[in-house]
Amino acid sequence: MKIKLKEDYPFLYETHLHTNRGSACGNNTGAEMAKACKDFGYTGTFVTDHNWGGNTCISRELSWKEWMISYASGYREAKEYGDSNDFDVFFGMETGFQGTEFLIWGLEPEWFINTPEIRVCDIKRQYELVHEAGGLVSQAHPYRVEPYIPEVRVFPEYADAIEAFNATHSSPMSVSHNNPDWNDMATELALKYNKPMTAGSDVHSTRIFGGGMAFKKRFNNSKEFCEAVLSGDYIISDGVYWRDKNGKIISPAEIV
What is the rounded CA–CA span in Å between residue 81 and residue 184? Predict the structure, then answer.
């Protein structure tokens, strides 16, 4: 399957993707996930495996540096594929705080290795550290209700953006977390606090959903992606529709 891209926003990026190298719930390697995304029509992807506060598959008994090196292996595999196949791969992380999760973009594994405080900090301090380093924080699927999420909590004051559209909630190809109402509630949260809306698939296997963010330009690095998100010059795919930066439907997202 492949998504038909919009002519004026031809560069589509997956912002929320898991591998079996860092996430216990992941099903495929970094290289397999990158190839599946490229074949679907993406320009690039972030690898955002679950960290130590979430469903990681990396032993928490490792030293900090060892943990990060092992954790980033899915990203490195994906990037090796991308570098050889004209496909952009950027490092990201999904952090967890008792079921409340955030996406971090714009920082490299080396920054995390050199910032051990990030492993023990709270949500407020995480935002401060990432912000000081020039990264971007988006609260992931803020209204999802599942057994692994003890309580729905929102922290717009400690996020640069809100993941308003998670394609796992809305795509007919998704087999879990199916509730588009959660996207509607997240959209309202972003609008209330005037936060940029982000979108991704939260995909855990090579069954690609088509969620993500499309831009007018291709990015050289993840910092450029962060700048583009804050500028608001993008459109969104929720796996069903193309939407503008405020979440309004533009047209169906054709997946053929």
Answer: 35
Closest C-alpha among 52, 226, 215 to residue 131:
226
Residue 1 included in any domain: no
pTM of the model: 0.97
**17 within some domain:** yes
Which residues, in sequence order, are bridge partners of residue 125?
Answer: none
Q: Which backbone phi and psi does 113 adopt, to 5 degrees?
A: -60, -40
Residue 49 lies in a domain: yes
Contact 16, 169 (CB under 8 A): no
Between CA 148 and CA 162 the distance in angstroms is 20
**Residue 6, domain member (yes or no):** no
Query: Which tokens is 191 given?
Result: 């609008």
Count the alpha carbons within 13 Å of 223 in the hemisphere toward its beta carbon: 5
Dump pLDDT digits (tens) for 154-203.
Answer: 999 999 999 999 999 999 999 889 899 999 999 999 999 999 999 999 99
Residue with tokens 């008792």: 98
Question: How far is it between the farthest Cα atoms of the chain?
Answer: 49
How many alpha carbons lie under 13 Å from residue 113 in its C-beta half-sphere?
A: 11
Helix (H) or strand (E) holding 250: strand 249-252
